[in-house]
Design a protein that fits this description.
Blueprint (H helix, E strand, L loop, with lengths): L4 H4 L3 H22 L1 H9 L21 H6 L15 E5 L7 E5 L1 H17 L7 E4 L7 H13 L2 E3 L6 H10 L4 E4 L1 H14 L10 E5 L5 H11 L2 E8 L4 E7 L7 E3 L4 E6 L6 E2 L5 E7 L10 E7 L1 E2 L11 E2 L10 E3 L2 E3 L1 H8 L5 E12 L2 E10 L1 H5 L2 H19 L3 E6 L14 E3 L4
Parallel strand pairs: 3-4, 3-5, 5-6, 6-7, 18-21, 19-20
Antiparallel strand pairs: 1-2, 7-8, 8-9, 9-15, 10-11, 10-12, 12-13, 14-15, 16-17, 18-19
The structure holds 5'-O-[hydroxy(phenylacetyl)phosphoryl]adenosine.
The site of 5'-O-[hydroxy(phenylacetyl)phosphoryl]adenosine (DLL) has 22 residues, from α6, β7, β8 and β13.
Length: 433
């Protein structure tokens, strides 16, 4: 079922006219209300009046994560805070989160987009949606929640974690849809195994998984283990949260980007040049209906490809390939985003530690784990074991408190971490996904 038939199946030409109309409004809005955009447009010598066709989008300057950081927390909002109904945030690059805001209409737009998303994934009124995305500043929980309600499904706002309870309620409440990260879906499947809960005892038929990269082979595993259709959903807080793109259950081949709200582009990450459909590069989005926090040509750092071939589901919106990597080194561990540089700056504040470290990312069972190995100085190293263990614990706690990740810390003897002549390889990713 197509939730917004008129918009989702719009002929491309009409869609482009609509995009142009909405783009112009958005560009006028940010130019008039956000000093950052006015300055950036003036510097690039583009005026809102110079946007005459959709191709003119390319004249506009890019927006980066650093621009968000520089204008922390509310500097890119187009409205005063009293017009903003909701704030969300994701962990950023400096310990300060990336902050986004929604007006009443934005929340409504997002709910509609999430109803579309769920519908595209095969969810219907009458379904019972167990929403195991985290509720809170993260956009996953509330994004799915509002969408499922808009659709008329029954929502179980269980949030993430509490695995045994998830399984109990899944069985008792007859959940038909599971929404969570793909790695958590595998954890749930594994726990079911341990508890002897066979998938036949559940009513589950669809899983909508995203917020982190996952592979086709992982999809097959989850589908087999849970006896469901597993659908990939993509989104990012800066653009709206979940609800940017999703696979359709009919084809499960590429994620439809809701182009009447977001204009996607693929660029060469090194030169910034636009790339044609079919070529791989960095995804860039411009929002064209958001009020409080529109973004112009936002560089996601996510690597994908766009495909304009018609889809058998009837939607005319382009499809993006599943995102497998990022142009930068941001790590996403169990849904928490962080950069190796954040770990570094934190470690460097702690007396006794040397600036030689490596971050190991592994997959243990179905969960990603992080181990930080760091050299200590001679003095600390010759201390008694008890002291070393206490220091390890203290570093672990600081990483947890500041970055929100549970990392194992291993203090190692001076001069045991690999040295480099060129760029250091700080992250050793041993996951095979
Ligand atoms: O992860 C929004 C979301 C919530 C999407 C629930 C899907 C489901 P952020 O926390 O801002 O927002 O993280 C955004 O996560 O730039 C990608 O690198 C990554 N990401 C999100 N979805 C996928 C996916 C939410 N399906 C960042 N595949 C993005 C691969 C994904 N990576």
């Amino acid at each position: 079922m197509i939730w917004d038939e008129e918009f989702e199946t719009m002929p491309r030409e009409a869609l482009e006219s609509l995009q142009l109309y909405r783009l112009r409004k958005t560009v006028e809005r940010v130019y008039a209300t956000v000093p950052f955009y006015k300055k950036a447009f003036d510097k690039a010598k583009v005026h809102p009046s110079s946007i005459k066709s959709i191709q003119d989008l390319k004249k506009l300057p890019f927006t980066n994560k650093t621009d968000l950081r520089d204008n922390y927390p509310f500097g890119l909002f187009t409205l005063p805070l009293h017009e903003v109904l909701r704030i969300h945030a994701s962990s950023g690059t400096t310990g300060k989160p990336t902050v986004v805001g929604y007006t009443r209409r934005d929340v409504e737009t997002w709910s509609i987009l999430m109803a579309r998303t769920l519908s595209c994934a095969g969810v219907r009124k009458g379904d019972v949606v167990q929403n195991a995305y985290g509720y809170g500043l993260f956009t996953g929980g509330l994004g799915f929640h509002y969408g499922a309600e808009k659709l008329g499904a029954t929502v179980i706002p269980i949030s993430g974690g509490n695995t045994k309870r998830q399984i109990m309620l899944m069985e008792d409440f007859g959940s038909t849809v599971l929404t969570c990260t793909p790695s958590y879906a595998l954890t749930l499947a594994e726990a079911m195994d341990e508890l002897g809960v066979e998938k036949e005892r559940l009513k589950l038929k669809i899983g909508i998984f995203g917020a982190e990269p996952w592979s086709q082979s992982m999809r097959q595993q989850v589908e087999a283990k849970l006896g469901i259709d597993a659908i990939d959903i993509y989104g990012l807080s800066e653009v709206i949260g979940p609800g940017v793109s999703v696979e359709c259950i009919e084809a499960k081949s590429g994620l439809h980007v809701f182009e009447d709200h977001f204009i996607p582009e693929i660029i060469d990450p090194d030169t910034g040049d636009s790339l044609p459909y079919g070529e791989e590069g960095e995804l860039v989005f411009t929002t064209i209906t958001k009020e409080a926090f529109p973004v112009i040509r936002y560089r996601t750092r996510d690597i994908s490809r766009l495909n304009a071939e018609p889809c058998r589901c009837g939607r005319t919106h382009v499809r993006m390939d599943r995102v497998t990597g990022r142009t930068d080194d941001m790590l996403i561990i169990r849904g928490v985003n962080f950069f190796p540089s954040q770990v570094e700056s934190l470690l460097m504040e702690i007396p006794g530690l040397e600036p030689h470290y490596q971050i190991f990312v592994r997959r243990e069972g179905t969960l990603d784990t992080v181990e930080v190995q760091i050299e200590v100085n001679e003095k600390v190293f010759t201390d008694e074991i008890k002291g070393l263990e206490a220091l390890e614990k203290s570093v672990e706690n600081q990483i947890k408190d500041i970055l929100g990740i549970s990392a194992k810390v291993r203090l190692v003897e001076p001069k045991t971490i690999q040295r480099f002549e060129g760029k250091a390889k700080r992250v050793v990713d041993e996951r095979k996904i």
